[in-house]
Structures are given as structure tokens and as C-alpha cells.
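User: I'll paste a sequence; please echo it back and then give the predicted structure.

Assistant: Echoing your sequence first, then the prediction.
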Amino acid sequence: MPGSRKMILKHVMSGICSKMNRTKQLPSDIMETPLNRCLNTFDITLLGVGHMVGAGIYVLTGTVAKDLAGPGIILSFLLAGLACLLSALCYAEFGTRVPKAGSAYVYTYISIGEFWAFVIGWNILLEHMIGAASVARAWSGYVDSLFGGVISNTTISLTGELHEQLLGRYPDFLAFTVCIVYALLLGIGVKGSTMVNSLLTIINLGVMGLVVTVGLYYADEQNWTSLKGGFLPYGVGGVIAGAATCFYAFVGFDSIATSGEEAKNPSFSIPMATVLSMGIVTLGYILVSAALTLLVPYYDINPNAALPEAFSHVGMHWVKYVVSLGAICGMTTTLFGSLFSLPRCMYAMAVDGLLFSFLGNINTKTQLPLTNLVISGLCSAVIALLFDLEKLVEFMSIGTLLAYTIVSACVIILRYRPTFEPIAKPASTPASEVSASTSELTTPGSEIVCLVGTLRVQYSWLGPIFGNCEPGSVVTVCVFVFTTFSAALCILFQVSSNDLENGIWWTIILAIFFIFIMISALVVIVAHHQNSAGLRFKVPMVPFIPALSILCNIEFMVHLNILTWLRFFVWMILGMLVYFLYGIHHSKEGEGNSSYSILMTSSEAVKEKWGSTTKTMFKGAFTRRKSSNGDRSAIIDEEESTE
């Protein structure tokens, strides 16, 4: 009897592990979707710009300049923009490979497996909910300041103040209304809402151009040279601390990848929009910061209304109203970006069976997930109504940085994973099979494909160690090792920074050891053949750029507060309940699925059939039952038939 229990437990656990690690197969036609493919490169670029250029440029700029970096804020934005560009390039390559809604969630599902995909998707939902709520609250606060605090004072007089730790000072009914109204506006259809977004983004960029022009006209170069520390009053450390804060001003480029299922030509539009929007946003932040710090000494900046007060300082009072217009437009487009991405991520997870099935419904008239849009608007509105978002914004950052880290790792893994033929092939005649096999033998790139994931000739000295491993598996392990030791190095720098500065021997030896392991992992990765299959866009200098992206994201993560991590684990416990009680049992990916087809490029996907037709699915099911042996296969088949 104990032996039977042990066998049953072993079977159950092995079944869970295989389900958690199964990867997503894409449909036969990768461009097929119930959503409306109507967005061009211009629409997607302005969607990304609008999502990134919002409250940050009107609120964050003044705070960082006064308290962290001084005029060196322009270097902070430059460093943050470059760090974020590393992750954005990885998103762009995946957007070319997999033009589907869901962004990092789909990319992780394809590359690593279902469990980590759910973890990323669950955190993306939180990111966009809190992102939308925080911008709605900032929008409300900005409008309230224009009216001299009448809205907040009236609300407090009617409802009183909230004294709980995580709650805001008062219930923000205006922020609640803003979330609901903008969610309804997005319900008119993707093309109509993106036209509104594009108009507001252009107005915002025009206001930024006016701020830069007028600011540089009244510039005083002494604000950078001779006043209280000059250009770097807080030193290099202040610039780096400012970059860590400014990094979150660029969070939002993933809305570009989320639009992949509604782009007309995703293989061109996604990478082009990513690069253009990152360039425009980085340049805009740098120029506005330069104009602000040249216009007024950094220590005189009002962090709550930096730009309006700066222009009042030089007698340009009318600019205050123009800046207010730009701020409202900018925060509106940022809110649009979050409310645009959130329902589509819910839709992607529901279609895969990891969230409740009704969230995968698409309205036939608007071709939008309207149910998700309503839920997204209500959840964001309730959060904006009640919570103190200054405490929750850091909470949101963990999920964002975790998604960036895993997407960067996935780029390396897929580049060194071999490409195989899909399991389910279209029906063919014997003659076509002969011609196909002949073409495979004569294709110039066929030999290269067979070498992917194996050692290069010049690294044959590594053969005794890695020569017998399955192609691509060594690179996957090396990526895990690099990520683990990157985290260890960043934690060491955070915890023992004083010991390192004082030259304590054990901290230096430990840091050198961590760096040696990281470099060794990269050398082993480089020693293998890459997948040279043609993509419209590829991240340059793989594995070095994705590896640098992993290191930067982990460095930002270890700077977050301990309480932030505790809240993150509470959110993850709730997510694990959803996954293990519902998602793992309703996932659309069966035990017999293979991950081979997902490694094809999008150009190959047009030529080949991905996934199974109805005929081959039935054929595969009967074949699997005939060839099954033992209790384990029978149980799996029964589970699949019930699911």
C-alpha cells in the first residue's frame, strides 16, 4: 500500500512538472486573429511615445533635478534611456517573431514554459492596473492644483480623511471617474482610440517643443557652472540614483509589443516603432531637463510644479497654461497606454486557458475584448479611488523589471535553440514528400540549421565538457547561471558597498568570483552556433546586449524596498492560487504538444503550417492511445480528454 501511494504521488508530481514546463504552440497562420489588424507604424509609434511621455516629464523631472542629480539629470535620463533601450530591443525581436497580444507573457510561454509565463502575465496585469491608477491620480492632482485645491478640500470636507497606511489621504472621485471615462473611450474601437491618442500625443510633443525653445532662449549657463556644485552637485552617485528613478519614466514601451496582434505589418512596425519611440522620448526628456535646469537653479525648482514655476521665474506666466495643457494631454495618453495593454494581456492569458474563459471573448462588432476593458477600467478606478499610489508604484516596478529580465533571457535562449520541423505537418502525397526531402538536402541554410546550439570548431576544446549535451541545453543553463550570479553580484554591491570601498578582502574576492562565473557563462554561450534564420529585426551583439539588459534590470530590482518585496510575494501567493487551482487544469497546451514549431521565424511561419489541423489532431490522438503503455499514459489521456 505505501508503495502504491508513492507511485501515485510520483505520477502526480511528474505530471505537474511537465505541465508547468510545457511551451506554447502558435496557430498555423500566425497572422490570424479575431482582433482588428488596422494599426500602422505611425499609430504604434505614437502609442509608445504617449505611454512613456506623461506624468514623468511634468512631475518626475523636477523631483530628480532638485533632490537627486541637479543639472546632471540629463545624464540620468540618458543612462536610463540606454538601459531601457536594451530591454526594448529584446521586445522588438520577439514582436517580430510572435506578433501576438500579451507581450512578455507570450514570449515567456514560447521560450521557457507555462509557469514562468503565468508569473510574468500575472505581474503585467498588476503593472498596468497600478500604472493606470497612478496616472489617473496624478491627472486628478494636477487639475486640482489648477483650481487651487478646491476639489481635494471639498472631498475631505464631505468624506473626511483616510488614516490607513496604504490608503490615500482622501477618496479621489475625480481619478475614479477619469479611469471609467477613458476605458469607455477605448471601447469605440482600436483605430478610433489610437487616433485620439495620436492627436493628444502630438499636442504634448508640441508643448514640449515650446518648453525647450523658450527655456533655452532664457537659459543662464551659470546654473550649470558656478552655483552650488556646478553641473554635478550630487556627484556621480547622484546621477546613478537619478537614473534608477528616471528608468520608470520609460516604462510603457511594452504597449508597442502588446499591439502586435493589431498591427498591419508587425515584423516591420514593431521594431521600427520601438526604436523611434525610445529615441523620441529619450531626446525629449533630455532637452526638457536641460531647459529646466538652465532656466532656474536646481535648488530653486518646485518639485510639485517644476515647469510652470520655472517660467514664472522669468516672467513668462502665460506658459503655465500651455504646460498645463501638455500635462493633461500627456497624462491622458499614458493612461490610454495602460488601459490599452491591460485588457489585451488578460485576453491572451484567457485564450490560453490560464485565466477564466469569459475573459477571452471578443466583441464581433468592435473586435475588442470589451469585457476585459470594463473589468480593467473598474479595477484601475477602484485602486485610484482608495490607495496611496506613491507606495504602490514601487510595488509595480518589480513585475516590470522581472518581465524585462526574462524577455532578455528568452532572446538568448531562442537564438541558440535549434529549429526543427513542426510535429503536425499538412497532408502530402508521396511525390511531394520526395521533393520536400530533396529541397531540404539542397537548401544552402540547412547545414547551418543543423549546427545551431552545437559548439563552434574554434571552441572544440570545450567538447569533452559540453560536446555530448543536447543542442541548446547548455546555453539555457548558462543563461540561468549568468542571471543567478548577476543577482548575487548586485546584492553584494548593495549589502556590502562600504566593505568593498574599504577594500575588505573577502568582499573583493567574492565579487571577482561572481564576475568570473558570469564571464565564463557568456564565453560558453558564444562558443555555440547561433540560429541564423532570417528575421526582419534581430537584437545586435547577442548574447552581450541581452546579458547587459539582465544585469541592469536586476541592479534596479535590488534597490527596491524590502516592504515592496513582501507585498510582491503576497501578490504572487494570490497568483499561485489562481494558477494551481484553475490555470494548470484548463491550459490549452496538452501533454503531447511540442515546442519545436515556435522556434521558426515569422517569415517561415507564412510558408509552413504551425499546429495541427482537425484531421491531424484526431489522428495524433488515436495514434497516442494505440502506442501508449502503462498506467501513466492512460491517466494522461483521460485527463486530456476531460480537459
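The CA atoms of residues 94 and 107 lie 7 Å apart. DSSP finds 28 helices and no strands in the chain.
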